[in-house]
Amino acid sequence: MNLELLDPWEQEYPQIIEETIEDGYVLNCRFNKRGTLLAGGCLDGRCVVWDYDTRGIARNLHGHIKPISSVSWSRNGRFLLSASKDWNCIVWDLIHGTELHRIKFDAPVLCAQFHPRNNYVFVVVLQSEAPVLVDVSDGKVQRYELPTSMKSEEGDGDVKQNTNTVQAICFSHRGDRIYTGTSKGSLSVIDTKTKEMVWSERITGSTIKQLCFDRKGRDLLVNASDRIIRVFSLESQEAFPELTHKFQDLVNRLQWTSACFSADGDFVIAGSAHRAEHNIYIWDKVVGNLVKILEGPKEQLDDLAWHPIRPMIASVSGYGNVYIWSTNHQENWSSFAPDFTELEENLEYEEREDEFDVIPQEEMSKRKLGDEDVYIDVTTIDKMNPFDDSDGEDPDEITYLPTQLDEEDERRVEDEDEHHVSRKRKRVAL
């Protein structure tokens, strides 16, 4: 995708359903870092990866025997982390479509997320158990249990919260901190290196269901069961969150199934949990007002994800379909030249002093010859990446997946190779 060709005046949020992706019963979906691939977890334990440009299936991964609870992309886009209720987490190598690591826990896995900087570190939330930090960088699986309570300064074992269970988790922008949300509404911060809790505060009286950061890592979204979406701001990476906005539906008092930020972080979107509605609410984060309500089919909304670059949304319905929301493009065939604009009313035009002067033919020829001497480079590719939020480019980053043949295609290729070899041997014998 050439970012220079994108329309700068394009609408900032989608309006209509552009396409429907149907492949099994999808429960959740996530985009990769560039938005070129879309991964979905299915009810039958499969993980499907679609090429977002062609909408074709790039990988069909079989490894779980129970529904997928969450999927997460690694930083370089080569690995996919799938968490399931069968007590297992699988790290998939998408280049070969095989399992890289399979980790079994002592309880069903609620969600798992990759480290934003390290492709071999991720955190896992277990049902009624303490969260776990997993490191597979050395080829061996190392587990570190994370604290669920904050000890007193004397270190005598006294705790602030001893009955809370972690329900949601996410890394900070650089991965140096881990944010957890508990069943009793406590928001906590854990240092990734020391694995100790450095801050904890009760922000609501209900369960925190979801946590996520925007692209810049300055705003934290908290989705709780009290029907309120809270946005916390961080002045710096080392600062603690402070509440800035609250979003809710005061009329219908809807419960929010899933929520996230837009690609540029200017909007907050959330999907309602009503059984007969597939509505997506869009708020302006700065002003705090409701901008748009996207009304879809009469199906329950289970999950949603905003495209990391373009104003597009992928939403998962209760029937297992993935709907792609995009902007409403209006074609205008009245513009024939790049600098042509259609006027709605008469305008006064002030001409330049030499705009309509008669230029001799010799001078015109000299100008054309001068323009021909200008060197135009058509081979050098400018590295334009304004959406990169990292310290540098990752040389191992995978944007698109190579085509992978199934068993029937491999057998057909092998048969064709054997046929060509036998024909060559006959020619040599003759």
UniProtKB/TrEMBL annotation:
GO terms for cellular component: chromosome, telomeric region; Set1C/COMPASS complex. Residues 421-430 have a biased composition (Basic residues). Keywords: Nucleus, Repeat, WD repeat. Residues 388-397 have a biased composition (Acidic residues). It holds the Pfam family WD40. WD repeats lie at residues 61-102. Its main location: nucleus. GO terms for molecular function: histone H3K4 methyltransferase activity. Residues 382-430 are annotated as: Disordered. This is Uncharacterized protein. It comes from Bifiguratus adelaidae.
